[in-house]
Amino acid sequence: MRKHHFRGTLAVLSAHSTFDSAASLRAAANGDAAAWRWIVDRYSRLVWATVRGHRLADADAADVVQTTWLRLVESLGRIDDPDRLGAWLVTTARREALRVIASSARTVPTDDHGELPDPQRPLEHRLLVHERDTLLREALARLPESQQLLLRLLAADPPATYEEISIALDMPIGSIGPLRRRYLDRLRNELAASGITEAQ
Amino acid sequence: MSGTNDPNQADAELLGDLASVLARTDAVPGHVVDAAYAAFETRDLEAQLAVLLRDSAADGARELAGVRGASTRLLTFSVGEERFVEVDIDPDGERRTLTGYVVPSEPGELVVEHAGGQTTAGIDAHGRFSAALVPSGPVRLRVTLPGVRPILTEWMPV
């Protein structure tokens, strides 16, 4: 009985993402604030990754993210394909990021998003992790913007699906795998150039 | 990062490293998530939506404005084909002055909704309005005219 229940849970989990997005959108459109929180919790890292992929300064990044959520609220009940909420959010965030870049003199491109060490960790460990983190982030920042964006979407939690990327970035789904490999190679080369090799 | 000759595994490991670094060092700031939760409170079922028709910043008009030495940005919103809201965005540091008019011209009330709350201004008999000291960031305009459902523009970062 217990085992059976477990299998049932797995089946639900595998259908989880699309089912819950559409159902949550419907519930939120009917005023369910808990459903709205579920949507934010599910997608806020993906939206953040999209905006960060455009090298906006912190304040602009926050504005673009908020504009994306406000636009979703004003579009509740009018989303054409609720199963593709992730693609809708990435598309909207990207369009708003490009708009802010086009319209704003206050945008200061930045590659260095402030990072604070975790005071709970021993100092020595912190320094090593800190240095590796910094090198990897610097390597990422040296990639062209379109490459950073794809890698950030794939590295989000949960990652963007190929379908979401295909819609939002307007590229054939079959090109994403090869691009992923190429951009990761590029990232690897940048890391090697900064003295970090993978076999260490 | 263990050494491996399998390119698929090497890619998965590098992407995993990247995911973990970004999760640790570039997490979504708490205030950004809180603002996203709060965005739900802006839901409005009564108003009619005025959609963006034109953004001078996006269509090259900005270069022309630059020639004139101005830095104003012009946004045009419309409700259907009969009612328009035109807004000039004049930046001053982190503040914006929003001036514009509604077509057809009618007196009424304007409320600019923004991250800091609301800024209220009158709409005169010629349909003109002006709202100063609006904080930068996403804003929308709520236009109240006699005899029509309130009009809400799309959210726009200014």
**Roughly how much helix do the residues of chain A carry, as a percent range?**
over 70%
Helix count of chain A equals 8
Number of strands of chain B: 10
Shape of chain B: elongated
Strand content of chain A: under 5%
Separation of the first and last Cα atoms of chain B: 44 Å
Please state the structural category of chain A. mainly alpha
Mean pLDDT of chain A: 82
Order of helices and strands of chain A: HHHHHHHH
Tally of distinct domains of chain B: 2
CATH architectural group of the largest domain in chain B: Sandwich
Low-pLDDT regions of chain B: 64-70
Structural class computed from helices and strand pairing of chain B: alpha+beta
Main beta-sheet strand count, sense and barrel state of chain B = 10 strands, mixed
Overall shape of chain A: globular
CATH superfamily placement of the largest domain in chain B:
Immunoglobulins
Describe what is shown at a glance:
With 200 residues, chain A is an all-alpha fold. Chain A has helices at residues 2-29, 33-52, 58-75, 85-103, 123-141, 145-154, 162-168, 173-193.
SSE topology:
The complex is a heterodimer of chains A (200) and B (158).
Chain A: H1 2-29, H2 33-52, H3 58-75, H4 85-103, H5 123-141, H6 145-154, H7 162-168, H8 173-193
Chain B: H1 7-25, H2 30-38, E1 48-55, H3 61-67, E2 73-79, E3 83-92, E4 95-103, E5 108-114, E6 117-123, E7 128-135, E8 138-144, E9 151-153, E10 156-157
Parallel strand pairs in B: 1-9
Antiparallel strand pairs in B: 1-2, 2-3, 3-4, 4-7, 5-6, 5-8, 8-9, 8-10
